[in-house]
Amino acid sequence: MANEKNSVGGMQRLSGLLVGLGRGIGKLVAALYDGGRKTIDMMIRNVIPFIAFISFVIGIIQKTGVGNLIAQALAPLASNIFGLIILGLIVGIPVLSPVLGPGAVIAQIIGTLVGTLIVEGKVPPQMALPAFFAIDVQVGCDFIPVGLALGEAKPKTVEVGVPAVLFSREITGVIAILIAYLASFGLFPR
Amino acid sequence: MKALAEGASYFIGLFQEGGKVFLSLLGGILPTVIVLMTAIYALVSLIGEERVERWAKASSRNVITRYTIMPFLAMFFLTNPMAYTFGRFLPERYKPAFYDAAVSFCHPITGLFPHANPGELFVYLGIASGLQKIGLPIGGVAIRYFLVGLVVIFIRGIVTERITAFLTPRILGEGYTLEDLDKQEA
User: Fold this and answer.
1) How far apart are the first and last CA of chain B?
2) Is this complex scored with an ipTM above 0.95?
3) C-alpha angle A80/A83/A86, rounded to 5°?
4) How do residues A130-148 score in pLDDT, each as one tens digit?
């Protein structure tokens, strides 16, 4: 009698465990499957169209020889730290930065061009790290009022915040490039 | 006739070059990014929004975590551009600095966590795929980009916070203080 009770309790515990396990795995699988769907959705809707666009631009630039012109202008800027600082100062100019910002299109095109310059050996690989920051001083400068509004900022905060961020970039842009340059030592040991 | 044929093949050549670029971008790094993004999206949905907001509020109280941990949490869990909504946990005077720190992290984070800003991957990938093509490992680059990014957004947060304090009386009129900024009505 007592034995029977024990075995019933044991069965219940076991089945409870199995149900819990099943539920947990079900939740995990559902989350992963959903993650896959979201990822593919994102790829189809945002990433692959951008790759098509950038492939077109790079293809034209390389085939027509415009690429050589841009490369000639970009290579001396991207191949050493002083050039990168100059590049950073230019894209960070407070009236220029909001124009260069949208969609990070300019940063992405320059980045891809720097990538091809690295392949061609015109820019040393260890310049990659400071280059990330030099081509991106203007990041989000087009979006300040909207970004602040998303954070529920009040009108006067926006009035002060927009110039504050724009001016800050001209200072911190150079600092960022220098820190990245220092951090790039030993990146690709020979 | 010959000129016409040459013209046509030049014209097609423009797009063949683009096609090569397209395929190398698609086949190079993208497959890894897809698998990684799948895992991270799953993780984010398992952790849940409430817990993340609790972490964000806790990190908003300290000047160091406010411009490092908080922007990271925002970008990692809410992704660009919803990340900036975490600004609502802060008083007005810190909002421009937080936005500056958060937005400046939207590319350094993509080397390790591409799901955070998939529409703008090529700030990182453009350069990284160049490195990959000449056979260099990009893991170290991604980690350093991330870590330097954290240092940079911290400095940027501090500097922008100071500049906001400096500009407030100069733009909004003498005698307008940061307390007034915090207390303003919508």
Assistant:
1) 71
2) no
3) 150
4) 999 998 898 888 888 888 8
Chain A residues near residue B134 by CB distance under 8 angstroms: 118-119, 125
- Separation of alpha carbons B131 and A118, rounded Å: 7
Alpha carbon A9 to chain centroid, angstroms? 55
- pLDDT over 60 (residue A2): no
Q: How far apart are CA B67 and CA A172, in angstroms?
A: 14
Contact A174, A81 (CB under 8 A): no
Given an 8 Å threshold on Cβ–Cβ distance, is B168 in contact with A160?
yes
- A129–B85: do the CB atoms touch at under 8 Å? no
Give the CA distances from residue B21 to residues A74, A116, A175, in Å, rounded to whole numbers and listed in that order.
20, 10, 34
Closest CA to B172 of B184, B156, B160, B162: B184
The distance in angstroms from the start CA to the end CA of chain A is 78
* Other CB atoms within 10 Å distance of the CB of residue B12: 11
| Contact across the interface for B133 and A36, Cβ inside 8 Å | no
Its pTM stands at 0.81
Spell out which residues of chain B touch residue A42, defining contact as CB-CB under 8 Å. 37, 115, 118
- Dihedrals phi, psi of A99, to nearest 5 degrees: -75, -35
Which residues on chain B are in Cβ contact (under 8 Å) with A167? 163, 167
Among all chains, which residue has been given the structure tokens 């089945």? A15
Q: Which two tokens stand for residue A134?
A: 């030099």
- A165, amino acid identity: V
CA-wise closest residue to A104 among A140, A145, A73: A140
Distance between CA atoms of residues B171 and B116, nearest Å? 35
